[in-house]
Amino acid sequence: MAFFDRLLKLMTINRPRTPSHHRKTVVPENSTLTAGHTPAKPVQPITDQSADDPKPQNSPVEQPTEKPVETQPESAVMLVLYLDEQNHSLTKPQWLIGRLGEKIHFTPRHIDNYLLFHIIGFTTLFASPYRIMTLQYTKKLGHPVIMYAIDYDTREMVASPVIQTGAVNQPFAFSRTVVDGFHLIKASRPLTGHFTEKAQTIVVMLRRDSWTAVQRINIFVQLLDSTQILDQPDGQAYSYEFPKNSVWRAFVRVNTQNGETWFNLGGPQWINGKDVTQTDKPAHQQIGQQRAVAFKPIKQSAVIDFVSNHSLHTYDQPNGQAVKLIADGTQVQLTGECTDDNQLKWYRMADGNVILAQYVKLN
User: Which 3-state string (H, E, C) describes 158-169?
Assistant: First the structure.
């Protein structure tokens, strides 16, 4: 039996084992393994080392990692100055605070009636610990003030308009004597003031120094003789006269320093009152049968010679109905001429209308 037991034991030890034949061998506590089994190493229990134990542990202790200290950029200050063209301060300075390298965020202050035109020390970043930026402003220009000089009696402009310009709120002043030989009667507003953001107009009404009295009238005057027509009292004479005994409506009477009296017959037409008498309004006469007017045929080019920049009427026949206006300087073609009962000469034009010969200059 001993022989078979040993043989069986040898066969068991040498036979290969598959996973399905693995067996877990449980060793009873305090038991002694038989020969042929390798004893397992005993497990060492983990024990806390007492503070009284002078022997240090051999296992290393992991130390905590320290974070790097972050450094802040240096602080920076910029002073913003607001100056005019003469380097005078316009408002309180502005302080901007930040850190080096940061962008500058600010809006320049608005200053009434001034415009920004120049920057000294411009930057968009805080580039140094301390910096000055200067904003220079100029005064905003106001709208112009225009003064027109008008003849109070004739309503004609007697001088070119005078224009003044300046900065907003800057004062302006016009001289009272703006035209030689005239004096001020009244003005539409004061001649002094301040420039604003709106255009301003002043109209001054002037009267000639030589006119001592001016009266607006509505009378009829009869000419006692052929009378020269002038563009103004003591002015330039036209190339025509009004006939003797003709009656005209007068609108203005002027007395001058030399004792003369002048009558205005409408527009720039004046006559001296020495050969004039006042009369009643002519009675409306019944127009009788008029004899046919015979024109002498002519063929002549001509030009209208009236008042510069003015027009006059043409008529359907001598002393007839007005047809249309024709401007001074107009070139016309004459086809006939005649003289009426009042010894006034007329020309017939190519369009069939007639005009007084005194307003026509032959080429």
Answer: CCCCEEECCECC
